[in-house]
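U., I forgot to send this yesterday:
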Amino acid sequence: TVSVLYCDDRWDSAAMSILKTTKLDAIKSFVSSPDALAVVARSVPEGSADFFQRLAAEPVEVVALVRKDYALADIRRILTSEGVAAKVEKEALYEPWLRDMAMLCEAFCDLDKCVAVGFWLGTKRECSRYHLDPVPYRLLVTYAGKGTEILPA
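Result:
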């Protein structure tokens, strides 16, 4: 699992500095750092390849708002209402996956000092290459398959 955080305002691929870490807590200092990109390499739970393959057997796309103080409940409700939960909720990795997504949403809220974040979950890469959006920071998490490709200038 890889989490990538980046700041559009600092993006200059020719002179870009990158924070590489295995600790999600390290992104807390990202806002005040000169780094344009933070890459957090995280461990992959056993059985996750099969879990995500079953999840992605049919296309999934969920867009919602997740509140920091209710992140786990919001994500659980969203996945249930969108029919995603029914595909994998009986699997052992379902609850840890929900908790991981909630923890990431909470960490991003802490980073940006906000009460909620825009949440997108999908099985198809919408943006295969980096581009600019009108947001100060973006957190991308790839649980399986290819993530966003960062290209040199």
